[in-house]
Description:
The complex is a heterodimer of chains A (78) and B (243).
Chain A: H1 6-18, H2 26-42, H3 48-59, H4 61-77
Helix pairs in contact in A: 2-3, 2-4, 3-4
Chain B: H1 3-12, H2 21-35, H3 40-44, H4 50-55, H5 60-77, H6 86-102, H7 113-133, H8 139-148, H9 164-180, H10 183-193, H11 198-205, H12 209-229, H13 234-239
Helix pairs in contact in B: 1-2, 5-6, 5-7, 6-7, 8-10, 9-12, 10-12
Amino acid sequence: MKPLTARQIKGLITVIGNTREHEFNCAECQRNVSEFIERQLAGLPIDKTLARVEQHLTVCAECREEFLALEKILREGR
Amino acid sequence: MSANAAFLQNNLVRRDQVASRHAQVLLRFALAYCDNSDKVSRVVETEINWPEALREADNSRAVTALRAVLLNGLRIALRERNDVSEAQLEDFTQEALLRILERLDQFAGRSKFTTWAHSIAVNAAFAELRRKRWQDVSLDALAADGHQLSEQAVMPDAALGDDEDRTRLVGILRKAIAERLSDKQRTVIVGVLQEMPFDQIVELLGTNRNSAYKLLHDARCALKQHLSAEGITPEDIRTTFGV
């Protein structure tokens, strides 16, 4: 195995720091992300359920990538 | 008005003859689409009751309309990628439509329907693009990498710089990986670090996505507890280590 890069190690440490005992998995994030992104783009407050979406996005690179793509679609579609 | 739009307006359906509200809004959509496809989502968003239109026995117009909305969205989302063809975008859209129709009952109405549908389309497209990049990796290779994860050669003390605190953090992390994680947890961590698609990791482990996510989550919790026991808090990570 090649040595990990500084970016990979920093990424791992960041994700460890952002880990919560109770957090959404990807399916739960997916079920709620459309509501979360609409409220976020509208500048509206989020409740505890949607806060879990936000937390999941800090620990899951795949969901974050998809969230950013969705954000792009909605911003350009406005 | 384009020729297509004029045809629709004059020959297909006259507005005053339309009994169904769905037919009216779909016609309006069709007209708008013919005239200016860029503005499609804005025109139809507040007017179509998508779940109802898609549940109708003849939902072909609604499906056609939704396909156009999703395809337009994926074009925007994947515009900067030069490895995605128009044919692939069509395939992703088709897969997304199937998923959306299967999951219509899961739409709870807490967001616009199209936002929910776009999220499914984006998930379908990105999952497939990730999968193609990692077709030939074996579980043995991934597990072997997992075994090496806690080795100095893979995670050198000075990986984050020569600063004493950072060197200590890397050392503690390495020890935590070696002592606190199972072989399977190390395998999942390595897969994620190497940006392997999670679906691929799940497949290699022969488990399901929820179980694999729990494995990963338990691993992160174990590492966090170890760092915490060594006096390293999330706040320390954010401030002292600048990550």
